[in-house]
Amino acid sequence: MTGMADRRHRGLDAFKQAGGLLLALSLAGLATACTREPAARELRAQATSPQAASRRTAEEQGMRTVIARLMAVEGLEHVLTRFRDSCARPTKHSVFENNPPRNALECRMDADVYFGAQADITDVVTRIGAARIAPWEPQADQAIAYALDYQRAHGRHPDGTLMSAPRLEAPGVRIEWDQPVPLSQRVEEPLPCFVVKDAIYERCSITPHTPMSVATARSRYGRVLALHLTSSAYPGYYFAVPRKK
Questions:
Q1: What φ, ψ does residue 169 adopt, rounded to 5°?
Q2: 143 — phi, psi (to 5°)?
Q3: Which of 45, 193, 223, 233 has the most CB atoms in a 10 Å sphere around its CB?
Q4: In this structure, are residues 152 and 92 in contact, taking their beta carbons and an 8 Å threshold?
Q5: Rounded to whole angstroms, how far apart are CA atoms 125 and 73?
Q6: How far is it, in rounded angstroms, from Cα 216 to Cα 232?
Q7: For the chain, how many helices (H) and strands (E)?
Q8: What are the residues whose beta carbons fall under 8 Å from the beta carbon of 123, sequence distance 6 or more?
Q9: What is the pTM of this model?
Q10: Conformational region of residue 132, where left means phi above 0, alpha means psi within -120 to 50, and beta covers everything else
């Protein structure tokens, strides 16, 4: 009996030691993870550093150039531009992910520009294609031809089946417009400017300051066309701060 009791005590002590070791390792891992997480003040300094500012300026200039080229297309009337620039800590896609994000901070930029289409949309799409406002994919000419066929065929194949709604795309660039037939597919209203939770750096603007709504523009011009721009550099941000190992 005494030997059995001793074995039980030794087993209990070993269990306690193992549990203590696991707890210590967990706390050490947690402490290490915490030390690798930069403070918001440090990240804000990175987000407003000369290096970030330089990349931010280049990204914005690129977007403004595309916007200006589309504004110059005959038959389009500018309605509003929503411009947003934000730097934040990347979040995990799932609470079950063990590996932390590779970056401590990521900065992204996007713009949504809305136009009223006064002219016939087939003419507008043709002019957009000719303007080469963006580095279209190699199949861009086919996409423009398809968009024109879609409009002329009122969105239906010769056998009567529905055609997929057309749009023009390039890296970081997408153009779409109202498709009233055969199914009503309309450009949605823009999101308002709002404060992003846990944003380290944030700026958002809508111009003009008091714009007409997309619905009002549709009533006035008959059709709305939208240009959507995002940070084109893979994987979608123009500036990042790598996480310290």
A1: -140, 150
A2: -65, -40
A3: 223
A4: no
A5: 10
A6: 31
A7: 6, 7
A8: 75
A9: 0.79
A10: left
128 burial (CB, 10 Å; 0-12 / 13-18 / 19+) is buried
Question: Which residues, including other chains, have CB under 8 Å from residue 75's CB and lie 6 or more apart?
Answer: 117, 118, 119, 120, 123, 124, 127
Using alpha carbons only, what angle is made at residue 171 by residues 170 and 177, rounded to the nearest 5 degrees?
Answer: 45
Per-residue pLDDT tens digits for 135-187? 776 667 788 888 888 888 888 889 989 888 888 888 889 999 998 765 678 99
Q: Tokens representing 146?
A: 């398809």
Looking at per-residue pLDDT, the higher value among 99 and 53 belongs to 53
- Alpha-carbon distance of 190 to 178, in angstroms, equals 14
Q: Which residue is associated with the tokens 């423009």? A: 144
> How far is it, in rounded angstroms, from Cα 188 to Cα 205?
18
Quick one: average pLDDT of 118-127?
89
Cα-flanking dihedrals φ and ψ of residue 134, to 5°?
-145, 165
* Most distant CA pair in the chain, distance: 99
Encoding tokens for residue 203? 């700026």
